[in-house]
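PROTEIN FOLDING TASK:
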Amino acid sequence: MIRNYFKIAFRSLVGNKLYSVINILGLSLGLAVCLLITLYVKDELSYDQFQSRKHEIYRLVSDEISPSGEIHKMGISGMVQGATFKRQVPEIENLVRIQGERFNIKHNNEIFTQEASKVDSSFFSVFDAEFVEGTPFKALSDPQSIVISEEVAERFFGKKKALGKTLAIDYDNRFQNFTVTGVTKKMPINSTIQIELLMPLHHDKQQDDQWINFYMNTFFTIKPGANLAAIEQKFAKIYAADAKEQIAQAAKEWNYKSQLVWKLQPFLDMHLSKDYQAQNGIKNSGNKLFSYFLSGIALFILLIACINFVNIAISRSMKRAKEIGVRKVMGSQRKQLIIQFLTESALLSLLAFVVALILVVLALPTFNALSDKALSFSYLLDIKLILLYIGIFIGTAFMTGFYPALVLSGFKPVETLYGRFRFGGKNILQKSLTVLQFGLATFFILLTIVQFKQVNLFMNQSLGYDDKNIMIINVGGSDHSKANVFMSELLKNPNIVKTAPRQQGFWFTLSTVNGDKQMNHAMDLVDGRFIDLMGLKMAQGRNFSSEFPSDTASAIIVNEAFVKEAGWKTPIGQTLAFHNKKNYQVVGVVKDYHYSSLYEKVRPQVLLADPSQGGYGAFYLRLTGQNIPQTMAYIKAKFKESMPTKPYEYEFLSETNAKNYEKEVKMKQIIGWSAWITIFISCIGLFGLSALATEKRFKEIGVRKVLGASVNNIVGLLSFDFLKLILIAFVIAAPIAYYVAEQLLSNYPYRITQGVDMFLITVGGLLVVGLLTVSYQAIKAALMNPVNSLKTE
């Protein structure tokens, strides 16, 4: 019996090649997208699951609450908090602190930059790692010991054993020898803790007893069954008692009045946390909303593919009506007919699943590039995923076959055999499903246009300066005299127009204005050349100048955002006090420029030229854009002459700015691909429906032609019903897409405005695509000889 079901199902698929191909192609695309996104979500949820103590590990995090009630959530802490809490809270078993670093390493007379982490010697008592050389036991007990990964070992020692060998690392401004006491295998990709080079936290750091310092991650292992809320209450009491004097001092000297609330974050929550993100020595921070978004796309596309199947099955019901009547007369029960149609659905779904697996393998490299993953086909062999895929297969087969099976098996044999059967009603369900299909297509097209325009805004928005042909050389630290000599040498090359020093990275600090107002702002150590090189415009006052010797001691330039927040009407001459009580006077106001990304409004910024605030860590060079290879070679040679102990690292500002928006670019590509797949699946479904509609109206078309209907009349007649459904879909979906797009755009301080043009492009495009899809069948029917359709009458 079962064999007979499959035999008939196979004959049905082969006998209706066009509709079988449409269904298999649509379902396979939907399933392929679903499988790919399942891989992505599974990878996101698998982060850190391999750690044996994953349920016992917690990270120390904090909420900084300002006097106005604003909450700043931080996943980092300082040196003193973890040690103090461990000492006074008995529920804490162990402590590990991790601080991300970059070190210069001298090897074979070459200088290399290496990512590293300073950690407590208890690191391997808390976190798992597989050693290929050495053992985790006391691997970091010696202050001059290091543990490296296989990749780092191969980089410096080749294929030779690294255990016991030394690396000269630039630490405390001098190269010191550190002995390799262990080599680990590469950590899994789905790990937030990545080992490249681990170094013990040095004893001099233990002198940092400041409770309001934040620069490292602190992890605890908590005894099983401990009450986390009770532990956090103990944190509050300890902080209030031990940090009392420092809090009072900070309030007096810095006007610091914020409150700190210490909390515990479960280790497994860290990767996808929006509030307490992975940073400072911890990598691979994820985005929970992105996973939800991709999952929604997968479900939508699979739903559209299933709608195709159901629509075409219902449309083909008239052609199968007599077959069903004969089967019932011959003794088939409704139950058997339902099983037959479900078997056909299962066979078709199985074929679609096989095609989907092939598509997944072919699409994986592109998908990895879009999602910043390194997924491989082997991920598909995971037992949990296999069970999930079986579930998706069964669900798809049931979802696509159950309703058509119920409808078709319910036909009455007398009506079908005598030709009296008419598929009742106005096909409300079928039309509703078509509207849903094109409604989803409308939704994706509009989101694609919005994302495209938003990315264009990011790329083309005026930054307040010209970032083209600006090269940045990062040196990590350089005194002012060496910096000036190096920049003077560079200017001897005619292809280098201007040079300027700046500190590396971004600094943020607190200062006091108007006597008692506390302000949080960016601070940049530069000189007058930087403003000139960047092309920044002065709103008031003047630039730094060598004509004013006091500029290097007490002058500052602020931006317009600073003036606004400080409430100054006449900013020139105003004073500002940093936390070390040193006063600076405002000599100029620079027009606001985007020194950070367009994800945030321009924040208050202070520019100063005081060498006592630190050394220069970067050199900015404006190039002409001519003879780039020769100019780059010249710059490298001069750098090696001036700073032989520094690694040569550079970047171009325009490329760095563009990298800020890589996520948006990738999101645009993902939504764009989703829109194209949705449109394609919808159109092949529409093509199938139009073919069936033409077959149903075969004789009607013949009669109309005999009565004088033109080709245009018939094409319009057959196309109008489908185009009307597309218009209805647009009217329903457009407001929803508009609302969702507004919610997404509300996250950006600089955003596009949704215009009428977006909606006109979308509806116009859908109508054109729909008309082209339907018109083939319509024109074919309109051009046929009416004799062929009427000769049996």
The longest strand covers residues 92-107. The two ends are 40 Å apart (CA to CA).
